[in-house]
Fold these 2 entries.
Entry 1:
Amino acid sequence: MTEAIATPHLTLNDGTSIPQLGLGVFLVEPDEAERIVTDALEIGYRHIDTARIYKNEEGVGRAIAASAVPREEIFVTTKLWNSDQGRDTARAALEKSLERLGLDHVDLYLIHWPSPKHGKHVESWEALIELRDAGLATSIGVSNFMQTHLDDLAAATDVVPAVNQVELHPAFQQRDLRAFHAERGILTEAWGPLGQGKYELAELPGLTEIAARHEKTVQQVAIRWHLQEGIIVFPKTTRSERMIENATVFDFELSDDEMATIAACDRELRVGAHPLNTDF
Ligand code: NAD
């Protein structure tokens, strides 16, 4: 077993600690997930972000079970899928996720989307509070919520989500939402931190020069930018050499000027689905 990567840990608003850098497993094939998470744990990752809809919870769980890394050293997040939202359905959904993961609790359970089509984000949040109180999830949060959805939760309960996991990358920086999170004590998690490969990071002005100056790749610069912005980040890759590359981001620092250059790259360029979409 190798040492854990040297990521900082952040403290959630419920007092628990989360490794700021992890590995995401969206679009990881079910039969590949075990190998990929095994590699990640060996490389030193201790934070895995999955979801019931990714259909790879079993593989994630098998890798954790087979690993020499103690369960309590691994931070596992999974998510409540839209069609499972509801006061009475959320518990069964989490129990099934735990069964697939082979775990008795997850570290973080998220409502995956506000899903206006189902209109159940508030009652789902009330259900998640009960699941947290029952010990099935240590921390609870949301994903793809806009300010209006967070306001809905605040009007109904006094439990503030620990995190909001949203699309966020250098061309889509979500500064207004992040300021709102900071006011409420919600940490921001980035999904698609590398733009999901849907645009060339190297084409953003200044990124290539910054990368060359530090002898890093533009992907490493983007990950480092998230870390210095205080954002939790879990880039996805299936390749172990890229897992190592993406975790080799603690031996350099972006200057204030470089952070400003990246701040100027914001294009409000959404590459994924909008939170108000009604397709799923
Ligand atoms: P990402 O921005 O992490 O990009 C992944 C792409 O970048 C892949 O094509 C990969 O091959 C490539 N890549 C990774 N490292 C690289 C490197 N060093 N050099 C070059 N290319 C590299 O996109 P993502 O996977 O969508 O987001 C990360 C995680 O966020 C997901 O795996 C998942 O866990 C989570 N996520 C959540 C939601 C949500 O709705 N909550 C949506 C999408 C993703």
Entry 2:
Amino acid sequence: MSRTFARRFQVATTGHDQMVDITAQVREAVTNSGIRDGLVCVFVAHSTAAVSVSEYESGLVEDVRLTAERIAPARADYAHNRLNADDNAHSHLRALVIGPSVTVPLVSGDLTLGTWQRIVLIDFDTHARTRTFWVQVLGE
Ligand code: ZN
């Protein structure tokens, strides 16, 4: 019979497209769940941050910053900033391109990540934040 397990985590970030490796927290939640086969969903509960899967090394961390700037330049005219006296329209737009969640199959107690794949949270906001993300495990 399948069941679910959910755990909430918080992570401190610097903002400005910082990519954080959260694989260890996800594995911890999976271990605590006792579930060995099913799906693991990782979801960030903010509209200026994203969750995905990536190789995690310093060159790629820098490339994410450069590519994010190409996708939605920080210094451009945005309605969100004009209408709300805000400064982070580019952060919202970068986050929505990548999306807030990723789902990874769980097989025989292991995440089915490839050798170089890590689960990453990217904070696109314009200042340091504490970010909340959820890990939900569904299976048996
Ligand atoms: Zn905003």
